Amino acid sequence: MLSHVAIALLIQLAVTRGLRTNWWAGAAAAACWAISREITQAEYRWIEAYGGGLRANMPWWGGFDPRVWHLDAMVDWALPTVVVAAVALLASVSSARSNRARR
Hints:
- The chain crosses the membrane at residues 77-96.
- The protein is mainly α.
- The protein is 75% helix and 0% strand.
- The chain is elongated, with a radius of gyration of 18 Å.
- The mean pLDDT is 93.
């Protein structure tokens, strides 16, 4: 779980610094990564549980089926998303304060 947070923070930093954009863009990219990763994992669980082991048997909504989601999977996308949003918020507040101080 902590590795997911670390990867999300690295994605956020790479997008923020690499594209010379704001921290919210990095947070969005990191959150999209975390969420899409967990949907993909849910698809694999669906295929195993209901699709007879064949991807072709999975409907388009298989990764969203609540039967294949559990608490660990929810935390695996929610925690990195909350952390990168908090970093973006702190960076925004810090930037606003430093801009006011310069005036």
